[in-house]
């Protein structure tokens, strides 16, 4: 049985998007709890938890850690999620894997054991970059438990699989991708346009960077796991066969992981593609407002559909389930994750809401292998009628595009 090694209550940086201001210009935000827990086999794992509601398991990218996303996590809590951000092996507070267990499946298996021992039965999975590869494998393994999959600039899809083959032939190319990640992180933050946000991001990032400088060898295992990655098409096909909603978010200016990777993943899973205009690989970190705003939009679409379908399978028929119904459907009785809630669950009044820095488009590309659209009676291919987003008319696009901002 897992047990808690240490805990830390952390005041949030900003407040959730959907909560109403408690005073002019102010919002009320949840507190986050950081824990180090020991699994039944003795493996030490870092977990950040906040909120009450639908389990949202968040998995960070290469060289990051769960708490680095604290600003967005606080906002997601305000949308009815219990956020569980898990540090992957060799990152944050999580112990690394032995040399014999450094394949991507081993990293996913550790995450799965953590989810099981926390007593989480049904969940939404969200993964950034390498975390997207891991949640894809988990969803393929547990289709009946996965409500939806959120891929954020994820390293899945045919384009990425071809890149991995090149990495094996010429390993220095993987180092170049790592260098591009550094460039992305250094050039994208709004140091001049929003110094306040840049300061907050640096405050979150400094402990992570310092940890890598002290123990750089911890990242060798994750790098080796990327080189050993099998094709992601098998996991993506399993997700499609399991009819799990997939929503892929990707920055249009991601210089480390090509946008095409998410196009591939969405076509294979018959999912939804959200392109963040002018966003780099680290856009979820540089603007904490954009991800929650997109999630709010998706709750009125495929994300909400997946959650409701999973709850119905668990016997919950109402459209607005109670907390007790959610607990019964999504958690084991007496789940260990409940012990990780902040002891002092009070909220803190801070700041004000801001509009998302980025704009985005939503597309539904044709599935892989599907026939092209058939011409209509006027000799042209059929397109959907214009849709309205944010009060503005959007011209019909080639792939059912909806312009979005909040």
Structure description:
By secondary structure, this protein is of the alpha/beta class. It has a single domain (3-365), classed as Rossmann fold (3-Layer(aba) Sandwich). Helices cover 35% and strands 19% of the residues. The strands form three sheets. Strands 1-3-4-6-5-7-8-9-10-12-15 form an eleven-stranded mixed β-sheet, with helices on both faces. A two-stranded antiparallel ribbon has the order 2-11. Helix 3 packs across helix 8. The termini are far apart. The model is unreliable at 8-26 and 373-406 (pLDDT under 50).
Topology:
Elements: E1 3-10, E2 27-29, E3 32-38, E4 44-51, E5 54-59, H1 70-77, E6 81-86, H2 104-117, E7 123-128, H3 130-141, E8 146-152, H4 158-169, H5 172-187, H6 195-214, H7 220-227, H8 233-241, E9 246-251, H9 260-269, E10 272-276, H10 283-286, H11 290-299, H12 302-313, H13 323-330, E11 348-350, E12 360-363, E13 387-389, E14 392-394, E15 402-404
Parallel strand pairs: 5-6, 5-7, 7-8, 8-9, 9-10
Antiparallel strand pairs: 1-3, 2-11, 3-4, 4-6, 10-12, 12-15, 13-14
Helix pairs in contact: 2-3, 3-8
Properties at a glance:
13 helices, Rossmann fold, alpha/beta, single chain, eleven-stranded mixed beta sheet, disordered C terminus, 35% helix, 19% strand, globular, 406 residues, two-stranded antiparallel ribbon
Summed up:
The protein is α/β, with parallel strands linked by helices.
